[in-house]
Amino acid sequence: MKNNVVYVFIDASNLWQAQKVKGKLFDFEKLKSYLKQKFNALELEVFYYTAYPAEGTRDYSQDGKHKFFTYLNKGLGFTVRKKELKRIVIHHNDIGDSIQEKGNMDVEMTIDAIHYSEKYATAVFFTGDSDFLSLISYLRNKSKKVYVFSSKNNISQELKTGSDGYCDVLHITEDIWGRDLKHREEKD
Q1: How many CB atoms lie within 10 A of CB 25?
Q2: What is the DSSP string of 128-143?
Q3: Phi, psi at residue 56, to the nearest 5°?
Q4: How far apart are the first and last CA of the chain?
Q5: Which of 82, 130, 161, 178 has the fewest CB atoms found within 10 Å of its own CB?
Q6: Considering the entire predicted model, what is its pTM?
Q7: Comparing C-alpha atoms, which of 144, 90, 98 is closest to residue 117?
Q8: Alpha-carbon dihedral of residues 99, 10, 136, 100, nearest 10 degrees?
Q9: How far apart are CA 149 and CA 158, in angstroms?
Q10: pLDDT in tens, 149-180
Q11: pLDDT digits (tens, 9 = 90+) for 20-53
């Protein structure tokens, strides 16, 4: 293992929250270059974790989302871990049923971070979830450098202080931000 091998683990839902606050989308090609330079990485591997709505559960097509996943994988060389959102029916006695969607990818991210840990010296997590503190502590005990990128609205204090460094993605150079975020128009 080389000291300048960096593995990046991106929790798409956490990053999405930052993009909404910023009103811009990340340019993932520029983000990859930024991280390679910031960590002086000879080799940089990026994992992207996301859950997506099942076909037919939205009144819009999912084709664009799947083309984006293909671009990340084939165009930028990211490893994309994705799964369909789980739909859970919640029964309410007084108002009927409702559906909650869940797409947590924490286990997948943890497995990859541990599975590949002999291949990297530095791990970078794009997440703010305090559940990752145990993983970060484990990796640091294995002599890994661990950095966390999130935004002030989505970071737990434990991750800020439990890692080797924290960066607020909202304050990263403007160079990594791409086009303006456009909200989908609601149908009447």
Answers
A1: 17
A2: --GGGHHHHHHHHHTT
A3: 90, -5
A4: 56
A5: 161
A6: 0.84
A7: 144
A8: 0
A9: 13
A10: 988 777 888 888 889 999 888 887 667 776 66
A11: 777 778 889 999 999 999 999 999 999 999 988 7
Q: Which two tokens stand for residue 19?
A: 């993009």
Residue 65, CA distances (Å) to 61, 107, 164 in order: 9, 22, 33
Q: What is the dihedral of CA 133, 134, 135, 139, to 10 degrees?
A: 100
The two structure tokens encoding residue 139: 């990796």
DSSP string, 59-71: SS-SHHHHHHHHI
Name the β-bridge partners of 80: 48
DSSP symbol at 22: H
**CA torsion, ordered 128, 129, 134, 140, to nearest 10 deg:** -10
